[in-house]
Amino acid sequence: MRGRNSPGFVHKGVSRLPDRALLLMAALIYIFLYAPILVLMVFSFNEARSTQVWEGFSTRWYVALWNDQSVLDAFYNSLIVGGTSTIVATAIGTLTALALTRYRFRGKSFADSTIYAATVMPEIVVGVSLLAFFVAVGFGLGLTTIIIAHVAFNISFVTIVVRARLSGMDESIEEAAQDLGANPVTTFLRVTLPLILPGVMAGALLAFTLSFDDFVITFFVAGVGSSTLPLKIYSMIKFGVSPVINALSTVILVATMILILGGSRFFMGKEDR
Amino acid sequence: MEDRRIQERPPDAPPVDRKVAVALSGITKRFGDFVAVDDLNLDIYEGEFFSLLGPSGCGKTTTLRMIAGFEEPGEGEISVAGQPVQGVPPYRRPVNTVFQSYAIFPHLNVFDNVAFGLRRAGVKGEELRQRVTRACKMVQLQGFEKRKPRMLSGGQQQRVALARALVNRPKVLLLDEPLGALDLKLRKEMQLELKNLQHEVGITFIYVTHDQEEALTMSDRIAVMNEGVVQQVADPATLYERPRNRFVANFIGQTNLFSGTVESVNGEKVTLVVPDGAKVEAVAQDGAEPEPGSEVHVAVRPEKVRFGAAGDNVCTAEVRQIVYLGVSTQYITWLPDGRKLALYQQNIQDAGGYDVGDEVTVSWDARNCLVLGG
Lengths: 273, 374
Ligand SMILES: Nc1ncnc2c1ncn2[C@@H]1O[C@H](COP(=O)(O)OP(=O)(O)O)[C@@H](O)[C@H]1O
Ligand SMILES: [Mg+2]
What we know:
heterodimer, A: mainly alpha, MetI-like fold, 2 domains, 11 helices, 78% helix, disordered N terminus, B: alpha+beta, Rossmann fold, CATH 2.40.50.140, six-stranded mixed β-sheet, five-stranded antiparallel β-sheet, 8 helices, 22% helix, 34% strand, binds adenosine-5'-diphosphate, binds magnesium ion
């Protein structure tokens, strides 16, 4: 490893100290990032109601979670919102990315910069303005408004991810398809889409994660009885931190990890094969 | 200035009754204010190996892309096999392209790459399999059908691109510097292979290159282009022996150029006076009659100049540089007025050797000394 290509002892002596410091730094950062989460996960298996004192192992909070219909409803809502907004935003975002890379049109640079601006817009502003908009046009708040709001902010993220993939692609590959008799639709389905698919999937995964996780914007545009999981957790926490919330958080965390790891393995596999 | 638009039929053009595969008439293409291709007129015949030759940026790729349908000309008309193709999208034109970057589909294996065009045309089953296999065999890729493109060398990818285009039996095959990315040895091999292949399949090839040697080796006819304008269209020997203007004379091979004033014209024989007062005997272009008193350039190839006084034009010169080239030796000599004159001498057994600084007599014949237009 280190020092294999550096026969001089001077180099070794000098490089060891910064290496150690770097290692310590990394360890501290990891502890800072993951210790709270670890504590949360551990206490979700606590026998007692306390989230501070350990009194033995139990899965009772998971059973309680499973039996809480309102939590299950919120989870179901989150899946509906996440799934629907991901599909719609991925379709629109992919086409937007294609338009921005492959065509020249009036107002392109404006469209370009607004796409990026949308990703750094403060959520509170987006939430309030969407609420004002829905009220102004007389649209009743509920799951539909949440989905529309999520589609709106997800389009930008999908566009950016897909665009990165597209801009690395040789345009003459698509021309070759046309040259060989493929009309624009066939060219897209047989050549462009397969080649940008890893980018599209990454965009979709990002969109689903952002949607599943969103609190601020959802808070403004959700109606009565249309709680998503983050909203539900927030309302539960108002009555004190209970181990049920720990259990719920652990479930979400594990599910997300599986999704991300599975996803990245899928893309890596695609790239290397 | 010089008249750069020379678009006549060359004297030894194929007979008129040969069928025209691609006709370009009055093609002009602008990008903004920039004129990439300027009033291009070309007839390319069926079964011909035709090259577009010129320095980088002279509009070769743009011309090819207009024939393929990726660019529409601003003015003029293109016909393929007698049919005007204006407004016809690339996927409905009876031409196929071998792209400069190969543009192989990276997600498909060799078989599916080659089968792509046939599948679009509705070819299926056994016929598909046979035609793809035959095409792979033709470019020596049999056994590679299941390979993904990234597991192929540059030369092999080049063959895939070729098979993928040829398998569709297009009326015309367009090739954009297809050998540009290969190393010298492989390039030389592929030049011969491509030429044989073209002979075998009998398809019209339109071949783009900036390499004059490559164009001379492979082509039936060549169009030399510069800054979007065709300078001369001719077969390789005519281009070399009878370059029309200074650009062609300089671009194809090596040449000695003199400028002078026309003194007298007698039939095709032209006598001119060079700045130091000496007379040079030369010949005019076919059909051209230089005006006495006009300023012209003449060109003579280095291998047409020899030591000794046995020619129409004789001068004394001083040897300044000697470059041994194996088969021949190149001598750079200086004429009394300081002009350079290069000559080649074959390295045959009894050829006399000269040294730098020697005073020598050199000569060349009038018929090898051509008055250039422009
Ligand atoms: N899409 C384009 N937009 C603007 N200029 C272009 C475009 N395509 C080509 N050109 C210009 O036209 C000229 C000819 O290009 P090209 O046909 O590619 O040259 P060649 O293939 O002979 O090297 C170049 O100067 C190039 O910069
Ligand atoms: Mg080019």
